[in-house]
Each structure stands twice: as C-alpha cells, then as structure tokens.
C-alpha cells in the first residue's frame, strides 16, 4: 500500500488531521505552500473528513522498505521561545541554517533533536537549539515574565507580537 509511487499527506482541517495516501502523480500537483484537505483527495473513497483514516502500516514495515519516519511538530517559520544557557528564553523564528539549508535535525529514530533559530532583536543571532529548550510562542501578559532582563524582554515581546500579527494576519 506504500512505496515509491505513494505519498502520505495530512488533512489540515483542525478537527480532522487524518492521513491520506496519494499517488505520486496526484501528489505532484499539490501546492506545498497551501493547506491540503480531505475533500481535495482525488480518491473519492477517502475524500471526506468523515471517512476513517487510511490504514497506516506499522513502523517496522517502513524499515523493511528502507524508509524512515520523520516527525516534526514545529513548521519552518514558527515563532518560538528559545533558551540558551545563561540567557532568558527569547523570541526567535525557526529558519534554515544558511550553511546546510536545514532548519531541523533528527536523530536516527526520526525524532527531532534540535531546531535552527534566529533570535529576534538587535542584532539578530542564529544558532541550533536542542528541542527541549524550545517552546511554541504563546502570547503572554507582560507581568508573566520574571527575570533580570524583563524590560528588554517585554519591549522585544511587544515588537514581535506586532510583527507576528502583521505577518500572519488571519484572512
């Protein structure tokens, strides 16, 4: 049911998130810059969110064919809080490493080890951060932060919230 001629794709409707199988030919016309939903599936048997998810093979079956499962919870461009030793958590964006072009590192099991981030503020600084030191950015009240760099952090948080709201306006 899977192989070089098949592609798994996930419905992006938040109440669905089911995985569907597309032929390589059908997948080649999917615009990876736009969301994909079950109703876009050319296979009418699986073109509705109300239909059960397609049977997913055991991970061992993938290994049998020399395939590897890779998991990432944070997409490229995500606004996150990153923590470096000796520094407070700081707003940053997941971005490609200018040398490798990658933004995420995986271990041999396909689990995320770290993300390449660009810290926001002046100057913008880039580095790799272990996944355990990254959390998804959540707007907070300005009284939530406790630390010796509070004023600077809050100033950048306000600016980044404005930037985030302009860049990712809901349509």
UniProtKB/TrEMBL annotation:
Signal peptide: none
SMART domains, per database record: PWWP
Transmembrane stretches, start-end: none
GO-annotated molecular function: zinc ion binding
SUPFAM superfamilies: Tudor/PWWP/MBT (SSF63748)
Record key words, sorted: Metal-binding, Zinc, Zinc-finger
DNA-binding found in the keyword field: no
Classification via Gene3D superfamilies: 2.30.30.140, 3.30.40.100
Domain spans labelled PWWP: 76-140
Residue span, CW-type domain: 2-57
Official protein name in the record: Zinc finger CW-type and PWWP domain containing 2
GO cellular component, one term: nucleus
Superkingdom, taxonomy of origin: Eukaryota
């Amino acid at each position: 049911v899977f192989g070089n001629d098949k592609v798994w794709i996930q419905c992006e409707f938040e109440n669905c998130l089911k995985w569907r199988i597309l032929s390589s030919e059908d997948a080649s016309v999917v615009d990876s810059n736009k969301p994909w939903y079950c109703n876009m599936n050319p296979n009418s048997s699986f073109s509705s969110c109300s239909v059960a998810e397609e049977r997913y093979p055991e991970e061992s079956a993938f290994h049998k064919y020399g395939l590897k499962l890779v998991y990432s919870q944070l997409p490229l461009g995500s606004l996150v809080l990153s923590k470096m030793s000796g520094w407070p958590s700081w707003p940053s964006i997941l971005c490609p490493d200018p040398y490798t072009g990658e933004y995420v590192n995986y271990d041999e099991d396909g689990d995320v080890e770290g993300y390449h981030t660009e810290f926001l503020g002046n100057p913008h600084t880039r580095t790799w951060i272990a996944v355990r030191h990254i959390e998804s950015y959540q707007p907070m009240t300005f009284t939530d932060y406790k630390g010796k760099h509070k004023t600077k952090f809050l100033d950048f948080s306000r600016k980044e919230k404005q930037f985030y709201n302009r860049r990712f306006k809901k349509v």
